[in-house]
Amino acid sequence: MREILVTGAAAVTALGRDLETTAARLAAGESAVAEVPASEAGERKGPAYAARIGSFTTEPEMPRAKARRLDRASQYAVVAVTRCVAEAGWTMAGNEEETGILLGTGSAGAGPLVDFERQMAVESPETASPFLFPYTVSNAPASVAAIELKIKGPNVTITQKDPAGLNALFYARFLLEDGRARAIVAGAVDEWNLTYHLSYERLGVLATATRAGYAMTEGCSVVFLETAESARARGALPWARLAGAASSGSPVSPQARRARPGDVAATLRAALGDAGVEPAAVGLVHASANGVPWVDAAEAAALADVFGTSPLPRVERVKLLAGENPCSGALQLALAARALRDDPSLGAVVVNSLGAGGNQIAAVFTAP
User: CATH number of the domain at 241-366, out of 1.10.10.570, 3.40.47.10, 3.40.50.300, 3.40.640.10?
Assistant: First the structure.
């Protein structure tokens, strides 16, 4: 099995346009969750909450005139992927065919699709914008980023809910180990739109003034994965090593938003076993906790089962401040690699992700 290293990372989030700003604001306990303005929240009796980016520019990564036709998710992806490749010091010229991109998403394309269908149904087919149509699909952000950066290797979009970013990492690992690419940008991208928000509000999982739950977010976070042979040959400074990962499923209802502590614990143990890391060697856990009480309680019980109760490794709950969507799981991957870059004495960092319908993924990073 090839050794896989993280040699760069980047993030566009509701807390900042780059990973360092986002990490600093999270460390300060700042929250991106805010009330959606009434003019954008549709007809409802109470307020809506989300972690949104607001005004955004693609400059200097992409000229504003070129970006204005892109959907928001594609804009986020172009900026994050461009910054990630630059952070890794990767030269694309001559390596186009050996570079890939894998992005997870739960919402990319939803906003353009709603607008396009509204034009088709409410106005007329003749008024539907042909410039809008290419962005009504979930793989548009990865495709646009690949076109802009001339990435010609594997190009995959994984459409799923919460764990999609970790699924992208999971899949990217196999492609690198299989020799399908030397380097892959992996992560997730999402956009916020009212229709998407209302759908999840009806499922009863979003936070309201009277109900606990999570706040939806948007953005793009990615890590640059590279084979150790490639990184060492070009003298790259690795941030972390992708040591192990595990994925499993639990037969739970996607509507009920439940998790089984025993199944979550088994997935965590499988990831640690794959990495060859003992629980006592883990210095940091990025938990999946997002504010849904039953799921968060199940995960807390699983962590206590795996790591013991005295003392637990440090546990970060990023989604409570940054919001929930696949891009949040990808942000945790970037933060995990950054933590080991800055403090190798952490030993190992675990990122855990639980999804509606019982999908569970855990990834383990160690110092390179």
Answer: 3.40.47.10
Tens-place pLDDT, residues 44-69: 767 889 999 989 999 999 999 999 88
The average pLDDT across 269-275 equals: 97
pTM: 0.94
**pLDDT band for position 254 (cuts 50, 70, 90):** low
Instruction: Report the distance separating Cα 55 and Cα 251, nearest Å.
Output: 40
Query: pLDDT tens digits, residue range 182-198?
Result: 999 999 999 998 888 88
